[in-house]
Amino acid sequence: xxxxxxxxxxxxxxxxxxxxxxxxxxxxxxxxxxxxxxxxxxxxxxxxxxxxxxxxxxxxxxxxxxxxxxxxxxxxxxxxxxxxxxxxxxxxxxxxxxxxxxxxxxxxxxxxxxxxxxxxxxxxxxxxxxxxxxxxxxxxxxxxxxxxxxxxxxxxxxxxxxxxxxxxxxxxxxxxxxxxxxxxxxxxxxxxxxxxxxxxxxxxxxxxxxxxxxxxxxxxxxxxxxxxxxxxxxxxxxxxxxxxxxxxxxxxxxxxxxxxxxxxxxxxxxxxxxxxxxxxxxxxxxxxxxx
Length: 291
Known about the structure:
Blueprint: E1 2-8, E2 10-16, E3 19-25, H1 27-37, E4 42-50, H2 54-60, E5 65-71, E6 75-81, E7 90-94, H3 104-110, E8 115-118, H4 129-133, E9 138-141, E10 148-151, E11 154-157, H5 161-164, E12 170-176, H6 177-184, H7 189-198, E13 203-207, E14 213-217, E15 220-224, H8 238-252, H9 256-270, H10 281-289
Helix pairs in contact: 1-8, 6-7, 8-9, 9-10
């Protein structure tokens, strides 16, 4: 299993119940490190960041191979959580241009991977041309980035058509319930999923925090429960970790329900430690047997 992960990294300033920690963030970080620790044999993170942060990001990627794609400035995110309501967060962002340049050499490199996971934080991070140039690959999109704009320190959702345009090129799409409803213009999990599949998407996963997740795999539907965490240390990146675990699970299990349960447990375990997920798949499976 060879997987490339693309997108910007960020410096995350995270506060949980008043306690501040500063660490590397961004979707490629959480996804790539989780994949490596879950046993994927070849993972490469193609990430945008400032030239000044090149050594810093390589040092903090915890053994994952990194290809630095230069940007003017590294993105920053300031987040605040409370253990009384881990599904909600306050956030302030500092947004700078971090567009990936589609060079001939980059496209050639990406064609060598089995899966390509796209993790933009903003609408201009991943050029639309990438989807058509890599249309024969297993493309996975896992977040709100295609329809997100940075304005006055906030994530602003608009132009959902940006994502709708690329749905036919995707193998899997991962969104949370609010994002899915925003893009589809529909209310409810199943109505939203129907919209996406009517616009060319084959497989969709809609997450709902502590309420679980919903898998729409072809014409089949699976409801996956969330597992209770032993403690809440750092909720940042839980959705990205779910995505990484689900992709890994497609190689471990044939049943989508088992794939979803594995992903849900990994996401839960990720809440219990700071930073990216760092346990092994054997630990996940062992804990699943106790549920």
